[in-house]
């Protein structure tokens, strides 16, 4: 436990994960969608999510070979995970307009 407390919020393994299924309006809650259908988009890709996050000024990186565990389709289109930094090394927010996931 002491090791986990010593890690900085700026470490890449502490960035939050966003899978395309979280934002896909074709998915149900049981299939992994995490936002309301009215705010979701049709079949987003990890690259598109990375582009949008970068455009608003967030520190992001793309992990192309990662898969969401609930995703049954193994096509390249559904692969990928975006890691996003929300907090800086001192624990303060990177961007105040994004205080949480």
UniProtKB/TrEMBL annotation:
Entry GO MF terms: 7S RNA binding
Family matches, as Gene3D superfamilies: Signal recognition particle, SRP19-like subunit
Location of this chain's protein in the cell: Cytoplasm; Nucleus, Nucleolus; Nucleus, Nucleoplasm
GO CC field: nucleolus; nucleoplasm; signal recognition particle, endoplasmic reticulum targeting
GO biological process, any: SRP-dependent cotranslational protein targeting to membrane
Keyword annotations from UniProtKB, A to Z: Cytoplasm, Nucleus, Ribonucleoprotein, RNA-binding, Signal recognition particle
Isomerase listed as a keyword: no
SUPFAM superfamilies found in the cross-reference section: SRP19
Matching InterPro entries: Signal_recog_particle_SRP19, SRP19-like_sf
UniProt KW Nucleus keyword: yes
Main location: cytoplasm
Function summary: Component of the signal recognition particle (SRP) complex, a ribonucleoprotein complex that mediates the cotranslational targeting of secretory and membrane proteins to the endoplasmic reticulum (ER). Binds directly to 7SL RNA. Mediates binding of SRP54 to the SRP complex.
Protein family according to the UniProt entry: Belongs to the SRP19 family.
Name the record gives this protein: Signal recognition particle 19 kDa protein
Organism: Homo sapiens (Human)
Gene that encodes the chain: SRP19
């Amino acid at each position: 436990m002491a090791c986990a407390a010593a890690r900085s919020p700026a470490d890449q393994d502490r960035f939050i994960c966003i899978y395309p299924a979280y934002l896909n309006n074709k998915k149900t809650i049981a299939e992994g969608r995490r936002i309301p259908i009215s705010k979701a988009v049709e079949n987003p890709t990890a690259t598109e999510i990375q582009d949008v996050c970068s455009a608003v000024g967030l520190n992001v990186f793309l992990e192309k070979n990662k898969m969401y565990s609930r995703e049954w389709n193994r096509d390249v289109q559904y692969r990928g995970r975006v890691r996003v930094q929300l907090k800086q090394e001192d624990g303060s927010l990177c961007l105040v307009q994004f205080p949480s996931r």
